[in-house]
Amino acid sequence: MATEVIMPQMGESIAEGTITKWLVEVGETVELDQPLFEISTDKVDAEIPSPTAGVLLEVKFPAGSMVEVDQVVAVIGEAGEEAAAEPVVDPEPEQPMTPLVEAAAEPTKEAELVERVRRFSSPLVRRMAAEEGIDLSQLEGTGIHGRVTKQDLVTHLERRTATLPLAPSSTPRKAEVLSPAKRPPGEFLVPAFSDGDNVKIEPMSNIRRLTAAHMVYSKQTSAHVSSVFHLDLSRVAKIRNRAKQGFLATHGTKLTFMPFIFRAVANALIANPKLNASIDGTDVVFKKDINLGMAVALDWGLIVPVIRHADRLNLVGLAKAANDLADRARSKKLNPEEVLGGTFTVTNPGVFGSLFGTPIINQPQVAILGVGNIEKRPVVDTDTEGNDTIAIKTMCYFAITFDHRLVDGADADRFMIDIRQTLLEETWSELDAFV
Which of 11, 30, 144, 402 could in theory staple to 407 by disulfide, Cβ–Cβ 3.0 to 4.6 A? Predict the structure, then answer.
């Protein structure tokens, strides 16, 4: 008996996903729970396991297809078995009858809009449209059955604000600059290339397009301001160096600098709740949970898994959680809920050698912390009597980017001072057992 493989729903608000790669060819044997195909949504990339053992008899959607949840994407059965023919299904199922008010009355514009919004856009798209004052009934959707997708909305916003469109192209095309008569008011588009240019054009990956869309949306939404602090991590470095071998032997995972930083951030968020908030119209939403997003760079893009209730975890718990999430992000093993619900984000460009960066806020959060390269540097050291000497210390630039609609410079600076205080004064006594 053949088994149908369906497109799973990777989160409550996810209505569709893109099949990015088939990991098994038609005719090949597959084991139960063996990775069968990869999908990408606006929340997570993931490998989907086979629901049964057998032979892959049929693939109904090739790689690159966007498929609605609960659609059959493949059939698995026994060798030599044929996939069952699909039943004929009415593409527009008859809707339940409703009481007639006026037999000849046509649906009102309000009813048409509600129905279109309900059927053709996800909750994320509806929220974005409401925030931007966009009437979804006026947009042409490119999703299945005319659904207005997040990319449709972002493209509309980009055109409205005179930024370059993000739609990918897999074939060479002629560059075009719109004439003033055809150009929307205030919009000037510069072509990416001209006729005769020696170029190679490749479509963006799904996660790259979604990241680009989210970054543009964030810059259009928040009033970004950045401030940079130079922090002394010498004490943390000494404690870490003494404990890291014992920590690895006991827990089987590395002790990096990041758990120390996560602890300092969580403490600072408790003392500065404005940075653990979101803006909802003219209301401020203070988050009672501290869920730290940690940006993870992948070969194919960027993803931000979330350490939930970070303030309740000790250093061991933070280290285990961070390493586990990063490892599973790189192997596409994250669950959808593990990239949702972040209240504050920490990104670490310093791992690649960068001194510091000014990251873009991860919406709907109001701040993000960028951690630069941690290295020994010569600094001026002043003793208790005011004498200055040149000392070699382990230093790092911390850059906080905040939304000036809610967070003032003084708020951000107090937050950073609290981080510095934790890094300088915390005893980290839980590491004594590993020394």
Answer: 402
Query: Is there a single domain that holds both residue 308 and residue 242?
Result: yes
Are 387 and 357 in the same domain?
Answer: yes
* Residue 84 to residues 2, 41, 60, 74, Cα–Cα distance (Å): 8, 29, 12, 11
Give 44 or 236, the one with higher predicted confidence: 236
For the chain, the domain total comes to 3
Q: Per residue in 214-265, pLDDT tens?
A: 889 999 999 999 999 999 999 999 999 999 999 999 999 999 999 999 999 9
For residue 62, the 8-state DSSP code is -
What is the distance between the alpha carbons of residues 412 and 272, in angstroms, rounded to a whole number? 9
* Global confidence as pTM: 0.66
Cα–Cα distance, 55 to 77 (Å, whole number): 5
Predicted local distance difference test score (pLDDT) of residue 109: 47
For 321, the 3-state DSSP assignment is: helix
The residue annotated as part of the active site, out of 197, 381, 408, 413, is 408
Q: Which domain holds residue 294?
A: 224-434
Q: How confident is the model at residue 106 (pLDDT cuts 50, 70, 90)?
A: very low
Domain shared by 295 and 375, yes or no: yes
| Rounded (5°) CA angle 407-412-416 | 160
β-pairing verdict for 375-382 and 306-307: unpaired
Q: Does residue 195 have an active-site annotation? A: no
Angstrom CA distances, 3 to 8, 79, 201, stand at 15, 13, 39
CA 283 to chain centre: 24
What mean pLDDT comes out for the span 377-393?
Answer: 95
Whether residue 34 is contained in a domain is answered as: yes
